[in-house]
Design the sequence.
């Protein structure tokens, strides 16, 4: 990964590339109250919070930069997701959400020692889900799934899972009895070469079809074998999810695109892919407005 042009301190892990500065709008007719359901914020003050070990060092990506990106694409709402590199210190994520509590929500990282009072405080500050990251250092542990699920269920939260579903032969039996909804990052984060008949992917589809699971139509560049958008080889994965249960899908930009294995795309190129995945405007509205409002508690009045 290349370093961005900003002045960065020396780190044990290379600094990620910055997002593409090209903010031309997409060709999509974005509906009012559209929500980007997956983004991160990285600040100068957050550099002291970076955990060791970690899988990447982020480029600086401020809330102001993020909201400028949202505006350029005709979107007004966003979900700030706690990145693995900050561990369980959610202060940067929550500070961002507090700046616009009617427009932003948070997905935070907690562990089995997080108290009811701490969860209550997180909820008041805009948190609506807890992220379990089983891919990158600093993200969370599988053995804490049950305990965390039981704790956050009292607040109506979901668990957001960053996992490669193809690595979990027991995915359905592990997750279906948890007392919360489940949100799968990046369409299950499975390399497309494994195909939509992969047992783990099929089990994720079963959870989504039953209404227990949700998927984020995001991170196509993390699944693809191609180098540039629109990453056509991801289409079968997206289509399988849409055909399964469009009421359980949301869209996310994954801005500022940390640690991606391909050249940095434009925001417009990523949003344009929705026209192929969701050709009907009613489906676009459902995924960009209705479903996020339900999942994250936005007011559509």
Sequence:
């Amino acid at each position: 990964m290349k370093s961005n042009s900003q002045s960065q301190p020396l780190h044990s892990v290379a600094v990620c590339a910055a997002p593409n500065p090209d903010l031309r709008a997409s060709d999509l007719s974005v509906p009012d109250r559209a929500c980007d359901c997956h983004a991160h914020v990285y600040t100068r003050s957050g550099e002291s919070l970076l955990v060791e070990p970690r899988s990447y060092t982020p480029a600086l990506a401020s809330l102001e930069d993020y909201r400028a990106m949202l505006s350029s694409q005709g979107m007004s709402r966003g979900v700030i997701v706690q990145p693995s590199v900050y561990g369980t210190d959610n202060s940067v994520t929550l500070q961002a959400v507090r700046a616009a509590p009617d427009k932003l929500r948070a997905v935070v990282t907690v562990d089995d020692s997080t108290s009811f009072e701490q969860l209550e405080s997180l909820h008041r500050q805009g948190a609506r889900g807890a992220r379990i990251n089983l891919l990158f250092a600093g993200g969370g542990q599988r053995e804490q799934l049950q305990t965390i699920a039981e704790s956050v269920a009292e607040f109506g939260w979901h668990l957001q899972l960053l996992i490669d579903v193809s690595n979990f032969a027991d995915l359905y039996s592990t997750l279906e009895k948890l007392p919360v909804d489940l949100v799968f990052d990046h369409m299950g984060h499975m390399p497309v070469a494994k195909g939509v008949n992969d047992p783990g992917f099929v089990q994720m589809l079963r959870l989504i079809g039953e209404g227990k699971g949700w998927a984020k139509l995001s991170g196509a560049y993390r699944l693809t074998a191609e180098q540039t958008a629109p990453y056509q080889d991801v289409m079968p994965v997206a289509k399988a999810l849409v055909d399964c249960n469009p009421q359980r899908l949301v869209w996310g930009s994954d801005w500022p695109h940390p640690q991606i294995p391909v050249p940095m795309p434009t925001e417009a190129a990523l949003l344009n892919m929705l026209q192929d995945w969701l050709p009907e405007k009613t489906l676009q509205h459902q995924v960009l407005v209705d479903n996020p409002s339900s999942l994250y508690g936005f007011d559509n009045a």
